[in-house]
Structure formats: C-alpha cells, structure tokens
C-alpha cells in the first residue's frame, strides 16, 4: 500500500490510469458520464472536472465547465439523472442501462449547487479571473435556485417540485454538500465584488437546521441512516467542526469502516466503496485527524484495476470488485483526497478544512 503524507511528492504517473479513464468517458460536448454510455448528473460531472484540473488537464476540465454553462436551465438548475435508478445485471456485475435506464431526470438542488464548489476550486488552482467571470452568472443563477427551495426552517428541499418528484423533504447528505457549495459561492461573490449576504445567511440557517433540527430530514421516506454519507458528510462539509466533528466520526467508525479496506457504502453490506472512503479521508482532515486520513487513503490504492483506474467498490465477503464499473467520479474523489492529504496544489485546502465561518460566529 502506498502511504502518502503531507508534503510528499506524488509518484510519477500515479494517477495516469485514472485520468485516462475520465478523459475516455468525456463526451464531445464536455459531459462526463458515470460510465460508458452511462448517466450524467451535474454533481458527479463536476467532481470529475475537479479531478482533471488537479492533475493539470485544464482543457478537459474547462470543457466540462462549458458543458454546465451550456445546459443550465432558466431557473438556475440542471436536469440530472439518478444513477441509483439504473438496473444492475447481477451476472455481468455491471449497470445494464445508460441514460434511458435512469428514469426521468430531476432538478436536484445538490446537483445544482455543486457548480459553485467546482468553480471556486478551479479558480484556486488557476487564479484565472476570466474563467471566474464567465462562470459567475451561472453560479449566481444556481444559488438563486437553491435559496428558492430553502424552507422557513433552514433545510433545503431535495429537488424541485416536478410531477415525478413530489416529495417535500430534505436530505442530510445533500444539504451538507449544499452547505459547502454556499461557502464556495460566498468566496466567489467576494472575489467578484458582488453581494453575498443572502447566501451567508442561507448557509447559517442551513447549518443550524443540520445541527439542531433532525426532524426536518427524511420526513417522507425511510431514514438514510444506513448510508455512510449521512454519517460523515456534516463533517466533510464543515457543518460540524472541532470536538463535535471528532465525536461524529467516532460515533459510527466501527460500524462503517472495515479495517484495511475502507468505508462501507451501506451499514448492512460487506461492501466498501472507494469514493465514500476518499470522502471520509477528507472528513478526517477537516476534523483534524490527519494520521487516520493518511492510513484510510493508503487502503484505497489496492482497489485499482489493471488499467490504473479505481473500481467503484469491493465486496469483501465474495472478494470481488463490485460492480464491474470504474466511474469517473470515483477516480476524481481519490485524486481530490490525495491532494487534500499531501497538498500538491493551491486548492488542496478546500476539502481539508472549513474555509468560511458562519455569520453568527
């Protein structure tokens, strides 16, 4: 296992296979789907764009952001497909359908918000004010969409109220990610000398809901507590900091973390997933637990395929990579976590700490 620590130099061609996989998947219009012929959603697309940019693939990354500019809807959202809805061929151990198998697309609030995180990350990497100026109107529209779906209690509806998304509810993971995106949007607004007070207040109210109003989440569906993301995302996004963050991760560490392997996706399956593990690495950094973060990251490199890209996950009872997919966003998550750990770019701190206090602090 490759153990990387702060200040280490990334071994030559360490992510060659991962970058090749993301670029292989990117379409002519700049879109980056989950897998060959697979679904596209703005969140995972943006994650892949950030992975490209960390390793210097700026042209491909900026094509990905151009795709977001080109496809944004008038209300500031994007249509996004839900990969979780795509059927799985159990014999082939891979997804059987592409975009047509994902059901009707949704205007997911977390999908829409993530452009701010990607845009700020790209600016931190490049210092390119022209890029930021070009994408600013799209970030602003996306944030208007987000704020339009914030309730009086501070939580944010998971998706726009379309006929096929009638559930008036909020998600802990999604709202935590939006909290981070609002942080980045405020930074962008300040860089552009534009007002950001409404976004700052919205972020504070969202943080309060996530910390103090658990009854506002999972009101109409089964609680998402079996998913590890609901456990660590409030820490990753900076909703919880200091001792509260450490306690949160200690709370279910033995439940979700398989020693020497990684983080389970769900509590009741012997299945570690690489992207969740990489995100947990960054959550550990945010909580100040660097040694644990470095160790957890080192476990992930055993899940690389022969081509160097990362498998989505590993079923450790059957001892097989499952499913037989190498998503673009999985590779990107490991790249971002590695940057956060070793500090190889000017953007490395973005996912290693909370970079903006709440208005009331």
Structure characterization notes:
It is a single chain. Helix content is 48%, strand content 4%. The protein has 361 residues and is mainly alpha-helical. The chain has a single domain, classed as Glycosyltransferase (Alpha/alpha barrel). The longest helix is centred in the middle third of the chain and has 20 residues, at 129-148. The mean pLDDT is 95.
Would you list the SSEs in sequence order as H and E? HHHEEHHHHHHHEEEHHEEH
CATH architecture: Alpha/alpha barrel
* Individual helix count: 13
Tell me the number of structural domains: 1
Q: Which range best describes the helical content: under 10%, 10-25%, 25-40%, 40-55%, 55-70% or over 70%?
A: 40-55%
| Spatial strand arrangement across the major sheet | 5-6-7
User: How big is the Rg?
Assistant: 19 Å
Largest sheet: 3 strands, antiparallel
Determine the mean pLDDT.
95
Could you please say which CATH topology applies here? Glycosyltransferase
Number of strands: 7
Supply the CATH class.
Answer: Mainly Alpha
> What share of the residues does DSSP label as strand, in percent?
under 5%
Helix and strand content put the structural class at: mainly alpha
Distance linking N and C termini: 41 Å
Return residue spans where pLDDT drops below 50 for at least 5 consecutive residues: none
